[in-house]
Structure of Na+/Ca2+ exchanger 1:
Amino acid sequence: MCDVDNYDCNEGIILPLINEYTWSKGARTCIYLVGLLWSFLGVAIVADIFMEAIETITSRKKKVKIADPSAEDGYTEVEVVVWNGTVANLTLMALGSSAPEILLAIIEIVGNNFKAGDLGPSTIVGSAAFNLMCITGICIMSVPSPDVRKLRHIKVFAVTAVFSTFAYIWLIIILVVISPDYIDLWEAFCTLLFFPAMVVIAYIADKEYFGKKSTQVADSHLDLEALVKAEDLPEGDIKADKRLILEFLRKLKHEKGYSEKELAQLASYVMEKDKSHSHGWYRRKAIRDFSGTTKLEPSLDPHTKQLLDTLLLTEDVAGSQESFYSKQEYVNKSIIEFAAPGAAVLERDGQVKLTIMRHGKLDRRVVFHVETVDGTAESGSDYIPVKKSMVFEPQQTTQDLEIEIVDDNIWEPDEVFFVRISVEPDQKCVIGKRGICQVVILNDDEPGTIEFEKPSYLFKESCGVARIPVQRVNGADGVLKAKWKTKDISAVAGRDYDESAGEIEFKHGEVEKHIEITINDDMEFEKDENFELILESVSAGAKLGRLQSTVVTIVNDDEFNGFVSRVTNLTNANLDALRTQRNTWAKQFEQAMNVNGGDLESATAFDYVMHFLTFGWKLIFALIPPPTIFNGWLCFVVAISMIGVLTAIIGDLASIFGCLIDLKPAVTAITFVALGTSLPDTFASRTAALQERTADNSIGNVTGSNGVNVFLGLGVSWTVASLYWSAKGKTFEVPAGDLGFSVTIFTVCALVTITLLMLRRYIGLFGGELGGPKGPKIASGVFLVFVWIFYVLMSSFQAYGHIQGF
């Protein structure tokens, strides 16, 4: 043990490199703390590369034949991934996220002459506690209310939860019950064998070889269920095609004229964001987001972000009314609003009827107020003002509000006024998005003014018929006729469009008509062409407005297809740039030396700061072979070797730092070291909880990782140590003391956590493992954080002798 009074604390495997015992204690403490934190950054950087190698390995595909009655030979070939998703998550993916803890346990044993240490095993237990309790609690609270995330692969979760709990119960049994304070060779070997047993049983559960199979939606053309599950199909690299880009441009209303680059940026951003990812991807994303490295999602420049805000019609991008009302202030409350944001009424109609609707909570009586507000229309002379209270009875969803319009037979321009809804604070209801309604009074005392709505219109060559709207404003009284004609500009009548002239008729009260012109598709490559549409004259009493002509542009489909092709290619180029496993050595160094991997336009001040702090690590780890070599295996081996070296340094840093501040190794392990190695998983799980539709990638992996930590971390290290001591005719000694007590407390807390998750899944109040109503959600998350604090405090009290252990 270290001598705290002399504070030399020189007991590491590698550190200190020089004799430091003459330095001041404060200086050494500061240096080792900074070194520990900086090393955690290094582990995160190299773990990103390690996960990249694992994703390359597990994404390997093969071709299989599947029954297809529509094919000539009755079969069709599809590509499926070689690795089963569950097996990949419990083996290589779990190893990727748990490598520091596992290697720390192994290195500590070997570096300590095969004697048991406190740091490695305690780090495994402490990391498991933080992962299961804190990460789960954070994920529960992170999902916006009232949204819910449920585990999809509940059978796999059940298997890993049982095995992870059993893993720690098994530790108690072999440390305290069977052979107290000693680990026999068979005990260590069984600990290691439980790992493949867990993988096999989880695979069986994933394939649903026992129990009732979940219902799957059959493919209408291919009998995919005959040979493979949907989860076995490769996640793959999503690609944009012309059909998808055309649909995307349609939603964008492409006539706004954004550049091809901006459209491609936005398309790639939306496609990548909507894609389902593995937990490993989210872990790498979290690491890259806080380290100033190349991002795994496309970055948007400010202009393109503004374009994103215009996509109000795309539910997936800008949200819908339903997502608006999922905000917490609208949960469990009555929502009152107008059925439409605006209404128009002819002056001669005498009144306008507005519908007020209520949704949300309907089981209470609600009193609300409506009031008219002048715009260009004046109360009294143009309409009769309203200011009154109205009532929604329980279960009532609509109310009609009638406002009288004054018909004065005097010509006036079209005028507007507004109607506003308000509620008292004690009514337990809120005003929705349409709390104000605009009413337009259309003057009908004059025939009106005829004009086009816009100065130009755009139509594709293949549209067949162009329909151009003509408006009647400032009056709608009587029947009105207007004559129109076309005039060539660059388009030629008879070839590009049918030369036309004619007359449109507005009946009494009608305010809009359409002129239809046939567009000819000559199937030849041409530039965009246009012609002019002119309003020549109108009936007596009426007049022509400001826009008496409009330009109609015919967009050539060949050029439009070229535009779509260019946007498609740019989109795919953006998506390809995110596939970092295709990097070369030169590309790795280029990305390591530049903020955001060279994407300076979207780099933030935080990116620059973190790039400065991690620059050294990035350069060192750029030496690791890219995963394109030998299908990722060479990268895998070199990366895990570097993690091993760095883990050994972290072990020394943590031990010496704990010694300097008089913190026992077991307590250092369950606090500083456990938190440092678990932070990337924390950010990854939270991001997955927000972006994924299920809870599998946020909390579904936690139990698997906890089991893998014990079965591999302690299984391998204890098996090696047991073999060593067996060869010497002795038994491997592992004092139960601090470790046995910590494991016992953790096991109790783990059972409480898993029980809470199952209650949240099957009790209607919660709706699922993550999210749900705000109150129960916050209560669940805070409770789990306090469970973790309880574990840390109890383990620490026992380590310092305040509580009697084993």
Q: What stands out?
A: DSSP finds 20 helices and 24 strands in the chain. The chain has three domains: 25-232+632-799, 332-442, 449-558.
